[in-house]
Amino acid sequence: MNSSMSAVAAVPSRWRAAGRVLTWLAAVSALAAAVSAISDVTQADDTALVVQTWRMYGLFLCTGLFVLLALRPRVHGAVWALLIADKAALALTAAVYLTRGGAAEAASTIGWDGGLAVILTAAYLMTRVSP
Q: What are the CA-CA distances from residue 116 to residues 31, 39, 45, 79, 100 (Å)?
């Protein structure tokens, strides 16, 4: 192989780069949500304290997982699958709650987590494009 061909092969495709950008955006948005959840924990009463803490830790966990995917998107296939399934399940569950008369934050959960499931699916597919 000549040097010009190896240089081309070393450059990631535009699709892969776009997929990584989407994954970094997911990481940043999860971090922002996690940081904002700190006030939910500090303001929670005893009946909601554990749930709010669990939610906050989950958001920090998602941040870390999104960072792993953004750094090495082709290595962690199972992590992609778990995160996409989680976000899709949250959106679908919220949709069921909404059709049954609603629940607090059901509509926003459909928007945020459903949108994130779509974005993660797109990022996963984009990062699978060969250079």
A: 14, 23, 29, 15, 23
Q: Output the CA–CA distances (angstroms, integers) from residue 113 to 27, 40, 47, 86, 118, in the order listed.
A: 13, 19, 25, 9, 9
Task: Fill in the amino acid letter for 25.
Answer: L
Residue type, 22: L
Give which of 48, 121, 66 is closest to 91, Cα–Cα.
Answer: 121
Residue-wise pLDDT for 16-48, tens only, equals 999 999 999 999 999 999 999 999 999 999 999
Neighbours of 69 (CB within 10 A): 27
Q: Locate the DSSP E strands across the chain.
A: none
The pTM for the full model equals 0.85
Burial class (CB in 10 A: 0-12, 13-18, 19+), 24: middle
Give me the DSSP letters along 6-21: HHHHHSPPHHHHHHHH
Gap between the Cα atoms of 19 and 62, Å rounded = 17
Q: How many angstroms separate the CA atoms of 19 and 66, rounded? A: 12
